[in-house]
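Ops channel
N.P.: pipeline sanity check, posting one input/output pair.
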C-alpha cells in the first residue's frame, strides 16, 4: 500500500463526497443526484447547494487559478433527486476569471441557487502577509460537549458534529447574537472548498441566540472569501477516532459567527472559519430571513416553550 497515513485516512468516499459528486455533461454542464437526507424544511439545505456549485466552478477553472470568492443566492427550494448544474464564463484572463454557475431542479424553469464567483492565480506582491483575524480562546473539542440539541433540529445537521462553546444557546433569549464552536463532518474527508461552504451554512444563525422561542430561518444569500489555498494538507484533516477519544484538533474546524444588525425580519451575519491550527481559512457574510413559525420541529415539543 502506498501513500501516507493521512492520505489513506481520507481515501474512502464519504456521504458528503457522494452528495456533491458531479457527472460532466459537456459545455460546462453537470449532473448530480441529491438524496433526501440533506433536507432543511421544504428543501435541501443551502450549504449543500453552495458546495455543489463550488465543485462545478472548480471543474471549470483555468490552469493555475483557484476559487477565491463566491456569492450564492438561494432562489427557490432545492428538491432531492436528479439535478443539473450550468456554468458560463463571464470573463476569463490569465490571472483572474469570473464565472457564473446555477443549480437546477430537473425540469425547473428557474434555478434553485445561482452564484457569481472569482477564480484567481497567486501573485507576487511587495505587501507583507498579514493575518488580523485570530481564533477566540476555546477549550479543545474533546472538552466541549456535543450539541446543544438545537443545533441538530434540521435533518441535514445529523451529518455533522457540532460542539458549541461561543454565544448563548439557540432560541434561549440570550444577550448576544453570536454562535460558534468546533465542527466537522461525521465521516472523514478532505477539507476543501466544498466542505468549507457547507460548514459555514451548517450552524444556526447567530441572531437566534437572542430569540426567546423557536423561529424558522432561511439563507437568502451567502458570500464566502477563501483566504488560503484549498484543500488543506491531508494531515490537518486526519482524525484520531480509530486511536481512541479525540485528543487533538486535527480534523476539526472552528466557526465563529456574529450578527450586528437585525431589522424587518432580516439578519446580517459575518463568520470566520479557522483550521485546526487556528489559521483563518475563510470568511462569510450572509443575509438571513428570520421567519415566524407556528410549526415547531418534533424535538422542540415538550420543552415548555410556546406551543
Amino acid at each position: 500500500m502506498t501513500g501516507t497515513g493521512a492520505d489513506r485516512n481520507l481515501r474512502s468516499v464519504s456521504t458528503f463526497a457522494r452528495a456533491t459528486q458531479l457527472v460532466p455533461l459537456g459545455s460546462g454542464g453537470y449532473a448530480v443526484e441529491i438524496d433526501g437526507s440533506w433536507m432543511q424544511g421544504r428543501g435541501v439545505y443551502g450549504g449543500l447547494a453552495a458546495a455543489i456549485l463550488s465543485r462545478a466552478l472548480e471543474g471549470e477553472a483555468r490552469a493555475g487559478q483557484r476559487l477565491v470568492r463566491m456569492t450564492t443566492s438561494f432562489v427557490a427550494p432545492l428538491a432531492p433527486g436528479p439535478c443539473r448544474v450550468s456554468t458560463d464564463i463571464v470573463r476569463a484572463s490569465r490571472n483572474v476569471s469570473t464565472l457564473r454557475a446555477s443549480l437546477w431542479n430537473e425540469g425547473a424553469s428557474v434555478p434553485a441557487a445561482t452564484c457569481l464567483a472569482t477564480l484567481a492565480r497567486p501573485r507576487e506582491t511587495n505587501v507583507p502577509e498579514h493575518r488580523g483575524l485570530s481564533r477566540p480562546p476555546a477549550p479543545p473539542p474533546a472538552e466541549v460537549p456535543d450539541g446543544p440539541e438545537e443545533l441538530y433540529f434540521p435533518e441535514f445537521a445529523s451529518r455533522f458534529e457540532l460542539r458549541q462553546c461561543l454565544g448563548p444557546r439557540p432560541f434561549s433569549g440570550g444577550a448576544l447574537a453570536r454562535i460558534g464552536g468546533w465542527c466537522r463532518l461525521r465521516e472523514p474527508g478532505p477539507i476543501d472548498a466544498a466542505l468549507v461552504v457547507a460548514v459555514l451554512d451548517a450552524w444556526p444563525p447567530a441572531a437566534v441566540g437572542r430569540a426567546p422561542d423557536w423561529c424558522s430561518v432561511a439563507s437568502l444569500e451567502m458570500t464566502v472569501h477563501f483566504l488560503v489555498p484549498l484543500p488543506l494538507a491531508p494531515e490537518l484533516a486526519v482524525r484520531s477516532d480509530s486511536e481512541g477519544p479525540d485528543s487533538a484538533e486535527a480534523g476539526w474546524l472552528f466557526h465563529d459567527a456574529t450578527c450586528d444588525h437585525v431589522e424587518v425580519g432580516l439578519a446580517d451575519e459575518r463568520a470566520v472559519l479557522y483550521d485546526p491550527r487556528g489559521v483563518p481559512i475563510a470568511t462569510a457574510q450572509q443575509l438571513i430571513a428570520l421567519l415566524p413559525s407556528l410549526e415547531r420541529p418534533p424535538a422542540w415539543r415538550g420543552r415548555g416553550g410556546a406551543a
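N.P.: looks fine end to end. The first helix runs from residue 5 to 9.
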